[in-house]
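Need a sequence for this fold. Nothing fancy.
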């Protein structure tokens, strides 16, 4: 396996890194813990489009750049290093972009155009109050009524939900646990409502509850018929777990950079604290874990780009990288001593922002259970 970057990839990543430091970091600092207004969120997404961030994965047939997932992963790492919040919004545009081929023919060009110009933001609604790790418990209903479906129910934890102009909604069309689930495009104009959720971190991007109170949606908005939705989502979203892994590692990289600088500048007992063995070893461990997480994530993305989809690779990099990212940021906080927990230094924010990645895109326990199932052939999820 060779993960060295091509000249073109290196140039793209370097140029984007400079853009992120110069243009995005000031916005991230200004809006720390405050929701970035929708208009500004749209502008940021549109400014990142030329780099391939967000909609860069949209297929060339639909007017996109058709970027490979490895390159997208590198870009999301750089973005999360500066702002995990803005990176989450870009991730959701990426996921929406991956699902555009399933938008019905008569709507596809309009939605593709809107996503590719960042005139609209979408979101993907799977989780509900009663359906988290167990996606098959989805209760949000789509009932037939003439030429429409009537949608009723609630989605929870929906990234970009409050910003969204439309949602790709996983809904229940009949009572078959898996066979009853289909995917439908619901536009904000159809009447769904959103309520922001306050979180420990990532509060400058939207995470929302999305409410459907008997809203009418034309049957022609059906994207994936009942029975095929789960498979479609798993295949289309195969790259998002390794990319989430790299986003958490992007935060860890920023924390390691801060801790390295601090350990050289801060003097105690007559020398820089980096000269004390325990601090030096801590930095060594942080850098090693970061590298191991990156390699696992690169391996998973490389396999996807070569046409193999390994759920085990994706699960391994997701749990490992997000776990070690939290450990690295915690170590960076320790190296900062008292300063680590103050808002004068960026570490306390990183500590809060990195933690949700252990839950999103499937909790780390669920990732480990998938690996265990692949090893033994025995399902330990506990379902019937
Ligand atoms: C920041 C953020 C953004 C998100 N964005 C989106 C989004 O855009 N769209 C969307 O649809 N969802 C989104 N989610 C939801 C996310 O996918 C769920 O939170 C996740 O799947 C876990 O579901 P839950 O929170 O209901 O936890 P639960 O499933 O209730 O799990 C609670 C605990 O029990 C453990 N657990 C559950 N089942 C088992 C089992 N069988 N064996 C062992 N342990 C188990 C879990 O690992 C966890 O520790 C987001 C979540 C977060 C935090």
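Here you go.
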């Amino acid at each position: 396996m060779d993960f060295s970057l091509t000249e073109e990839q290196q140039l793209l990543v370097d140029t984007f890194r400079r853009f992120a430091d110069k243009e995005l970091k000031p916005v991230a600092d200004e809006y720390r813990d405050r929701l970035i207004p929708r208009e500004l969120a749209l502008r940021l997404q549109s400014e990142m489009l030329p780099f391939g961030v967000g909609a860069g994965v949209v297929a060339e047939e639909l007017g996109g750049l058709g970027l490979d997932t490895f390159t997208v992963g590198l870009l999301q790492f750089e973005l999360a290093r500066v702002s995990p919040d803005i990176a989450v919004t870009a991730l959701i545009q990426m996921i929406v972009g991956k699902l555009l081929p399933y938008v019905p023919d008569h709507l596809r060009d309009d939605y593709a155009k809107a996503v590719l110009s960042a005139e609209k933001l979408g979101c993907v609604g799977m989780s509900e109050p009663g359906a988290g790790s167990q996606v098959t418990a989805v209760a949000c209903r789509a009932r037939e009524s003439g030429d429409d479906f009537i949608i009723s129910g609630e989605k929870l934890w929906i990234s970009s939900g409050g910003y969204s102009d439309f949602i790709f909604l996983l809904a229940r069309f009949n009572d078959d646990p898996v066979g009853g689930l289909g995917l439908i495009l619901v536009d904000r104009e159809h009447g769904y409502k959103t309520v922001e959720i306050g979180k420990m971190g990532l509060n400058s991007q939207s995470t929302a509850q999305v409410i459907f109170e008997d809203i009418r949606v034309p049957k022609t908005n059906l994207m994936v018929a009942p029975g095929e939705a789960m498979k479609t989502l798993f295949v289309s979203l195969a790259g998002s777990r390794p990319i989430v892994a790299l986003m958490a590692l992007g935060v860890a990289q920023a924390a390691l950079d801060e801790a390295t600088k601090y350990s050289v500048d801060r003097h105690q007992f007559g020398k820089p604290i980096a000269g004390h063995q325990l601090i030096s070893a801590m930095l060594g461990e942080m850098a090693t874990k970061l590298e191991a997480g990156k390699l696992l994530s690169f391996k998973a993305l490389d396999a996807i780009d070569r046409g193999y989809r390994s759920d085990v690779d994706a699960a391994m990099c997701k749990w490992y990288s997000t776990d070690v990212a939290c450990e690295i940021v915690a170590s960076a906080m320790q190296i900062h001593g008292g300063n680590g927990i103050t808002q004068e230094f960026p570490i306390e924010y990183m500590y809060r922002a990195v933690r949700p990645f252990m839950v999103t895109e499937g909790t780390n326990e669920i990732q480990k259970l998938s690996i265990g199932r692949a090893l033994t052939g025995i399902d330990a999820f506990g379902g019937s």
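For context: The mean pLDDT is 96.
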